[in-house]
Amino acid sequence: MNKKIQKAINDQIQAEFESAHAYLAMSLLCNDKSLPGCAHWLKSQWQEETGHALKLVEHVHSRGGSVTLKNITVEQPKWTNVEGLFKTVLRHEQAITISINKLYELALAEKDYPLQILLQWFINEQVEEEGSVQAILDRIALAGEAGASLLFLDRQLGERA
Ligand code: FEO
Questions:
Q1: CB of residue 96 inside a 6 A radius of ligand 1
Q2: Ligand 1, closest atom to CA 48?
Q3: Distance from CA of residue 57 to its chain's centroid?
Q4: Which of 24, 67, 86, 107 shows the greatest Cβ crowding within 10 Å of its Cβ?
């Protein structure tokens, strides 16, 4: 595996672990706000992001490359309301989409075919993730997040498999 590719994948692994950490911090915040469903949804997202990072680690290792982790530097999430929190999640996912797309462009430029194939999975995953967060925000825009609406939303988010 060429060094440029290895470094770029290492950076993406770092970004995935940082996403995971950010979502777990948000989950803990929701727990403190007595929103177990939101906490569950975000904790599931933490698991997904960890899975993404490990998928990339496995790819590097199976091609004889090396992974080095850096410190996690993620800001503590600030509480405004559920909408504010999920808007932060959406912005975060949009930034990840950009970094995945850049990695794909590099894989094309370097003619790294195995990485291109792996990243097609990630590109689809980003479409799905941005879509699911946008759907939550659409629901909040429609029904608000006061009283029963918030309890209903929280219950639904708690049903995430
Ligand atoms: Fe692994 Fe949601 O980006």
A1: yes
A2: 1
A3: 16
A4: 86
pLDDT, tens digit, 9 for 90 and up, residues 42-56: 999 999 999 999 999
Total-model pTM? 0.94
**Domain 3-157 adopts which CATH fold?**
Ferritin (1.20.1260)
- Residues near 75 by Cβ (< 8 Å), separated by ≥ 6? 22
For ligand 1, whether the C-beta of 18 sits within 6 Å is no
Listed by start position, the domains of the chain span: 3-157
| CA–CA separation, 129 and 95 (whole Å) | 12
* pLDDT, tens digit, 9 for 90 and up, residues 106-151: 999 999 999 999 999 999 999 999 999 999 999 999 998 888 999 9
Task: Please tell me the distance between residue 76's alpha carbon and the centre of ligand 1 in angstroms.
Answer: 18
Q: Residue 19 C-alpha to ligand 1 middle, in angstroms?
A: 7
* 52 ligand 1 Cβ < 6 A: yes
Task: Give me the helix-helix angle, 3-32 and 36-62, nearest 10°.
Answer: 170
- What pLDDT does residue 146 have? 86
Is the pLDDT assigned to residue 1 strictly greater than 90? Answer: no
Expressed in angstroms and rounded, the spacing between residue 135 Cα and the centre of ligand 1 is 16
Protein residue closest via CA to atom 1 of ligand 1 = 49
Cβ count near 133 (within 10 Å): 21
Q: Is any atom of ligand 1 closer than 6 Å to the C-beta of 129?
A: yes
